[in-house]
Amino acid sequence: MRSINPFSLNLITLALLCSGTSALAADFGIQHANTSAINQASYQCKRCVEPQGHSGSVGVSVGAIDADDNHAINQLGTDTDGAVAGVNSDVAYQGSGYRANVQAHQLGMDNGFIQMQAGKPGQYKFDLDYQTITTNHGSNAATNLWQNNGMLTPSEQTRILDLELQRQRSGIGFEYDFASVLGLGLSSYARYNHEEKTGHRSASLTSPSPINFANAVDETTDKFSAGVVLDGSNWLSELSYHGSRYGNNLGDLSLPYAPDVYSATPDNQAHQVALSGQYRLASSVFSGRVVTGRMIQDQDLVQMSGNPIQNWDGQVDTLNTHLAATTRLNNRLRLGASYDYSKRDNRSSVFDFAQYEYNPVSGAFKQNTPMDIDRQTLKTDASYRIASGYRLQAGYNYKQVERSYGEREETRDNELWSKLNIRAIDKLILDFGVSYSDRGGSDYQANELTSEESESLMRKYHLADRQRSEVNARASYTPLTWLTFDASTYYANDDYNATDIGLTQAQDYGYDVNVHAQVTQPLAVYAFAGQQWIDSDQSGDQASVWQAEIQDEFINLGLGATYSGLMQDRLTLGVDYLFANSDSNTGVNGYSSDNYGAYYSYNHSVSLYGQYLLSPQMALKLAYQYERYFDTDSASVTPDSIAGLITLGDLNHNYNAHQLMLTFSYKLK
């Protein structure tokens, strides 16, 4: 780049200098232009008139479902056999400077939503939303424990129910921009969300033998957020508050012969106050954020012998900070760095407890120990443009975690990474990446609180020494204007080189391929495929040495097509097919000749649809969806398969589901 002679001034520069020193300090941004003497009406864009009135479409869907298993709700959106109906809409209104829109999808079904927004751009906006979410985790759960008013009552009659959760979410929000009133870059927002969750989930207890049962769920969660944003020509700041409150409407559970055998999830609340900002100086950008929070849990505890506490005065204070800076040194080189610090300070009450030692009962008193966690993360990166279309990136990441009274008091992670982006080859995009990381730290089992509680050679995988290597590549190729190929692959290896008992090695690798072709103007086809493999090795205990090999495999395949040129462009046909498969096997050597049971599942999903335009405003769509689902988990057993174990029965799935839906839509404009 040729340097500029500071003494070589042209006439325009001289004119600016002669106009006075105030001109040098002025902001010549377009937002400060003086337009008071301009006849703006003469310069209005005659073709930039935004449409006024209503636009969009509304519709209703009616149909029928035939499903052998309520697990089909996860794919079909509803599990009600027989007739179903829902409302859809995407309507917008604009007039006299006001805007509003309403979006709805399958409103009235088990999974549907509606969102409404209204306001005046640049001044204020009001929004309202409602959503229903239903997920099924297990159908036809069999239980002989009947739950009523906190009592689990055994019965000879078997009760069949679904492990299904229903959520009803609603929210309201408001935004206001003070710029038009105060002439400042000041805006504010506030939002409130409420969720009610009901249904059943699986749970277990021991009294004195293992008991699995369907635990009723009746919970509420309230969230509130508010903030103010102040910005200038080259800076931005925000002060915000976020709070949540969780309430459990069900209490502890008892058996007829034993009170309070299962403790309910306690009520709790959390609060956060955050201050963030960003400043731009020439070719550099600086940003920061400070967040302070408090989590509170003060709930009555289940009373038992030796417990001196009536209720738990739990409090955890949190502090999070983030600092970041990026700068462009020239048109080739950019540098960046960031620092994060987080602290979790457990300020819960400390009490004396009678402790039971392994050998033997000593009767000594010890205190519960609040555990704190401190994290520090430092990241640096550089991006250099080697030549036109070639960019090299590299970086270094460092993370240090300190834990009080844990198996390992400190861990340190170091990571080096690099990426190469190639855009110089016509119609081809290439990205390559490589990284290496190493985790070490203080001596394992360094604390006397944990040194006697587990095998000295055992290592928890998230605390153990680890060396990780990873490579990845991605390519996007467009040989023709109507044809696109995308492919990516990766390989990662985790080596737990200091672990004698526990996870010793893990490999994770896979690929994804996508193809899209606009064969003709009305015909478009697509296809994709992806696979992932995770192979893990684990070593057993010292007394009877054994090794386990865990092999997990996942596959996703899909293809589809749409054709929109039939019957004078009135009819559009489409088809989509998806296949998903997962398989997990665990082989054990040296301990038993029998391997652990496998987990296997697959899913076939086919969707066919046709849409016909009755008129430019009205359309009729007929859609058919089919799902074939099967899974088998060896951990799911019948109630009488293991002596002394009470289960929820065989929760595996094997079903066919069909959905036929007719949708009528009307375009408003």
Q: Helical residue percent?
A: under 10%
Query: How many DSSP H or I helices?
Result: 4
Q: What class would the helix/strand composition place it in?
A: mainly beta
**Alpha carbon gyration radius:** 32 Å
Q: Give the N-to-C terminal Cα separation.
A: 55 Å
Strand content: over 45%
Coarse morphology: globular
**Main beta sheet, described?**
26 strands, antiparallel, barrel
The pLDDT mean sits at 85
- Strand segment tally: 30
Return residue spans where pLDDT drops below 50 for at least 5 consecutive residues: 1-43, 356-362
InterPro entries: Decahaem-assoc_OM_MtrB/PioB
Pfam families: MtrB_PioB
Keywords: Signal
Protein name: Membrane protein
3D architecture notes:
This is Membrane protein. Pfam families: MtrB_PioB. Keywords: Signal. Residues 1-25 form the signal peptide. By secondary structure, the chain is mainly β. The protein has a domain at 299-454. Helices cover 3% and strands 65% of the residues. It has 4 helices and 30 strands. The protein has helices at residues 11-18, 22-25, 73-76, 179-182, and strands at residues 53-67, 82-95, 98-107, 112-120, 124-148, 151-177, 186-206, 210-231, 235-248, 253-255, 258-262, 268-281, 284-300, 311-328, 333-346, 352-354, 365-367, 373-387, 390-403, 410-422, 428-441, 466-480, 483-495, 502-517, 523-539, 547-566, 571-589, 599-613, 618-633, 654-667. The strands form 3 sheets. It has a 26-stranded antiparallel β-barrel. Strands 10-11 form a two-stranded antiparallel ribbon. It has a two-stranded antiparallel sheet with strand order 16-17. The chain is globular. The relative contact order is 0.08. Mean pLDDT is 85; it is low at 1-43 and 356-362.
